[in-house]
Structure formats: C-alpha cells, structure tokens
Amino acid sequence: MSETAAARRPKVFGLVRRLPEHLTIWLPLLLAAGHIVSFSLWTLWVSFTPSTLLPEFGWVGLHNYTAVLATRNWRIAFDNLLLFGSAFVVLSLLTGLGLAILLDQRIRGENVLRSIFLYPMAVSFVVTGTVWSWLLNPGVGVQKFVNDFGWMSFRFDWLINRDMAIWTIVMAAVWQSAGFGMALFLAGLRSVDTDLIKAAQIDGAGPFRLYRRVILPTLWPITVTVVVIQLQFAITTFDLVRALTGGGPGIATLLPALVVYDFMFQRGLLGRGAAAAVLMLLTLLAVLLPYAAWRHVQARQAARA
Amino acid sequence: MSALTVRDVTKQFGSAEVLTGINLDIASGEFTVLVGPSGCGKSTLLNIIAGLERQTTGTIEIGGRVVNDVPPKDRDIAMVFQSYALYPSMTVRQNITFGMECRNVPRAQRNEAVARVAKLLQIEAMLDRKPAQLSGGQRQRVAMGRALVRDPLLFLFDEPLSNLDAQLRTEMRMEIKQLHQRLGSTIVYVTHDQIEAMTLATRIAVMRQGVVLQFDDPETVYNRPANLFVARFMGAPPMNTLSARLEATSDGTVAVIGGGETVIRFPVPAAAASWIGRQVVLGIRPECIAEPTRYFGDAPGATVMIAALVEVIEPTGAETIVVLRIGDERALARVSPDLHYRLGETARFAADTRKINLFDPETGDRIA
Ligand SMILES: Nc1ncnc2c1ncn2[C@@H]1O[C@H](COP(=O)(O)OP(=O)(O)O)[C@@H](O)[C@H]1O
Ligand SMILES: [Mg+2]
What we know:
The structure holds two protein chains of two kinds. By secondary structure, chain A is mostly helical. Chain A folds into two domains: 1-46; 64-304, MetI-like fold, CATH 1.10.3720. Chain A has 14 helices and no strands. Chain A has helices at residues 2-17, 19-46, 63-70, 72-103, 110-118, 125-136, 142-148, 165-190, 194-203, 207-215, 220-236, 239-244, 256-266, 270-304. Chain B is 23% helix and 35% strand. The two termini of chain B are 33 Å apart. In chain B, the strands form four sheets. Chain B has a six-stranded mixed β-sheet with strand order 6-7-8-3-9-10, with helices on both faces. Chain B is α+β, with helices and mostly antiparallel strands. The chains are: A mainly alpha, B alpha+beta. At the A-B interface, helix 9 and helix 10 of A face strand 6 and helix 2 of B. Magnesium ion is lined by residues 42-43, 159 of chain B.
C-alpha cells in the first residue's frame, strides 16, 4: 500500500515540476495548430459560399472554383508559378550545392563565408524585395551605375520588361535561399565516410568522378528535402513579389498568392479568394503528401536495417 | 625481393608526433601484421604506405621503387577498410570494377576479372545487389573482392574484421589466411587483436605510441618478447610478471620469488648472470604453470614443482584458469579441467622454466 503511494508520488511531483515546461511547449503549439486548422476550415467553407465583401451563408458548390480557374489572372499566375518554381528550385539547388562543394575544400575563412552565404536567410522577404527593386531599377540601380561609368548603351531593365521580370524574382529568391541549401549540403558532404573517399582515391577516381559517382549519390535524401522545402516556399511566395514587382509590369509576375490577395482584399470577392487559396493548398499538398509518404518509407527501412 | 620498405618514417599532426622512426622491411609474400592498442598509429602508418597521408619525414619503397611522390592509384596497392567503404550507390559489380573503370579497362576484360574474383570469394549470386542489401559478412567479402581484383603488389588491410561478430570473424580470419596461402600475396594487416595477429602473421610488428617495439615472427614475439609491454599485450590470458631477485647457486643462476615457506626458485638462463644480486621482473606464461602431473618435456631441471595458494578458479570448459598467490603477487595457471582444486588450499603445481623471460624493472626491456 505505502509502497505504491511512494512509487506514484514522484510521478505526480515530476509532472508538477515540469508543468511550466509542458505549458511552454504545448500551449503555443495547440494555439498555432488550432489557429491554422480553424482558419483553413473557415477558408474551405467560405470557398463554397457566395461571399463577396463579407462572409455570407449559402452554398454555391464549385462555382467559385470554376470562376477562378476561368480567369486570365489565375492562369497567368499558375504558369508563372510553374516557371518561377522550377527555375528557382533548380537554380537555388545548384547554387547551394556549388557553394557547399567549394566550402568543403577546407578553405581558409570558411566560417566567415558560411555566415555570409547564410545571412540572406535572416533577412525578411520584404527587405530583400525592396533592396533588389532598387538594384534592378534601371533609373537608380545597376544600369545607372554602369551608365555613369561611361558605358551609356548598357541596358539592364529586366524589372520593367514583361518577359524578363519573372527572372528578377528568381534571382532575388535564389539569392535569399541558396544559403539554406548550402548549409544542408555542406553538412551532408561533411558526413560522407572518409574511408569512401580514400577507397576512391586508391581506385584512381579524379575529383569529377569522385563527386559524380561516389559523393553526390549519398546526398540525394538531402536533395529531396531541400527541393520540397524550396517548392513549398515557391508556392506560397507573396511578400517577395509584392515588394519587388508588385506582380507587374502589368500582371507579368503574378503568382497565386497575389491572386488570392487581389480577390479577397482588392475586389472584395471573398468566395473567389478562398477558392484560389484552397487551390494553392491543394498544390502544396501535391508536393508535401508524397514527401511525407517517402519519409515514412525511409524511416521504416531505416528501422528494419 | 623486398616488397615494402619503410625507412625512418615519422608523422606529425600539428605538434603531436604520432609516428617515430618507423623502419620495416617486408619481403614479397609475407603476411605482416601491425598490432597495438587503439590510437598507437597503425592506421596512420597504413595510410602513409597507401599514399593517403604524407609522412613528415622518411621514405616508402614499394617493389623497390621510392613512392614518396606517387599518388595512391599508382602505387600498385589495394586496401580493405574497417568500414568496408563500399560505394553505396553502386552495385557489387560496379564496386568491384570501379578501379578498372577509372583506368579505362575495356568492358570485356572487366567482366572477366569480376567473374574470376566472384568465383574465388563465392559472391556470384550478389553481383547485382547494392551494399545496403548485404549482410556484414557479405560486405566484407565484396570489400575483399574489390582489393583482389586489382592483383596488386601489396594488399593493405585496416582492421577488416572488427565489425563482424565473433563467429564470423573466426571464419573470415581462416579464409583470409587460406587466400594468402593460395595466392602468395604480400599483405600488411592492421589489427588491435593479438589473436588475429598470432593466427595470421608470418611476421608481427608490435606498436605502441607511434613506435615499433618488436618486429619478428609470431613465435619469437610470443616466446621472447622484446619488453614487458609486448609480453603483456600478446597472449590471453597475459603473461604473468612477478618481481624476483637473482642469486648465484652451485646449480647456476636462480630467480627467487617471495620468501618464507612458499619461496620459489626458478633456474634462469646464464645470460642473466650480470644481474645477480639485483631485482628483475620474471615473466612466465600461464600455460607454463599447470597441474603437478603435467609433462613438459625431458630436459633435466626444466620442470620445477611449486606450492601456491589457490585464490580464484575459472573453468572455461577446455581448461581451467587458476589464480594463484605467489609471494605478494598473483599469477595465472592453466590447468586441466579434470582437476578440482579447492579455494584457499595451498596446492602443488608444475612450472615449465625453459620459457621464462627476465626483464629490467626500470626500462622494461628484456634481459634474457
Ligand atoms: N588527421 C589527424 N589529425 C590529428 N591527429 C590524428 C589524425 N589522424 C590520427 N590522429 C591521431 O594519431 C594517433 C594515431 O591514430 P591512428 O593511426 O588512427 O591509430 P590506430 O589506427 O592505431 O588506432 C591518434 O592519437 C589520433 O588521435
Ligand atoms: Mg585504426
């Protein structure tokens, strides 16, 4: 009797003693999760209602969806997303990998360089967008700088060029997030078994073959992770475009998140905006669900090995 | 012909001297084992021989050619690593042929070589699998295959068996020995396991803290260790080391251990005569102390009867280890499992005195 009481007491005490710890972890998590889930559900509901300026009850079925999908804005935004998303992911992956391989040569000043490459991640997208919009503005930025040096015919006006403006967003986004890929790849390169590299040296593999056949193949799980994280960033991009081009010139750099914003807060079409938001969510899920499944399979395999 | 010569090699990592004045001369066809506790510099020495690491001073010659400035791939060596170091993204076949691929060997020739090695190591069935799909023992075989396919002047093994479980390790040890006997290859093999060293080597280099303490055939290393460290490192259970005083008697020089009633006198070699009247460390292997009926040979005076207190009894099945008290010290004896000693009794044992070694208590070096 007294034994069980003695055994139970420390458990209860432990719980009480660790209460602040539990509160600080679980409370914000629950609040955040509740927040996300409830607003997602609310958006989902609104997307099936005839809401305009204010939420309204009623049911219009998939009407909002067909309407959004039929607009030119949405189609352009989605095409832009495909181009921006793939270009951004590929370029930031390659830049990150390149930087990581260079840093992995055990050069002097590695710590400083690593911080420099990682630093852009700490900057808000609004700041990145604004600074790049100055740099790329033909009247004040790079073009003016080169013109002032006397090369008067130099033109660098992608920001105001319908066909090229999307690439300025790619540039800024790569600048901002290549460091992230670099950090992950560098960690991956550093964890390659040194015996593998020795074995390849004895086999006579040159640096190119060493990377291509031996080292890089070990990095592909990291690559998948980086791609997925960059893709979800690409799909939800809003502030960067808003600060850099505002979706322009015209609607040349429109992205889905800007379309949602436009429907909801500029045209007062809450139902349409919500439908567009749900479409974005579906795109996101199309990336994240396979990734989650893949991670699950990997974990199972690791557990079995 | 000398297959490998290591001359005056030293290695420093920063200010730490990891290898000091290493000299080895290894003939073609020899199986040399570098053995020593972990961290003594074995892998570093092997890496220097392979060209994966650069010595601070000294010379490496392979097959009579100075290779100090020759990259690993051109040293005509092959290496097997403790972690196996199989390329995870390649199949077994690709792992084995990667070296030939790098040297642009034609495909037909590569396939022929793989077939030969796969047959030798019985890994034909797994050529198209990835390393992750293999067991530890199979990976080990593939790693050996990758080395064998090169047919090099010199094989380097860095603790190739230490990731295997005990039973598999014994099997693979035997196979490696058979391969060596069959192919007559020259092998430098690193291990911290003295049993591996004894069973495999034609010559053993015992290392400690970057120094080669003794470089001899296994029998010499075991029976006439160069110093106390080698004496205690080689052999399990280790050699008994007891402090003794040398005295001259009419029968020659004797070592006196302990005093009073249980005093023990062992005859020792005449070479130790200059130490008469001084303290020495006497080394006697546990298998040289046994039950009183044990027959050690006909040499007159070789077997001495002693009486000692039984402190611990450890039956192992094949034999029984008895811990004795001799003087103020403990010694191990390996006795027949059929004898049943009692704890705390003073029992009689036979000691084989022909293999006694004497060491300088200050320096630890062998006297006789
Ligand atoms: N790259 C290195 N830099 C600095 N010290 C090293 C390096 N490699 C090995 N050492 C040191 O050299 C010593 C010998 O190492 P090693 O040759 O791996 O020993 P062993 O293989 O005998 O266990 C160890 O003390 C180890 O810490
Ligand atoms: Mg080692």
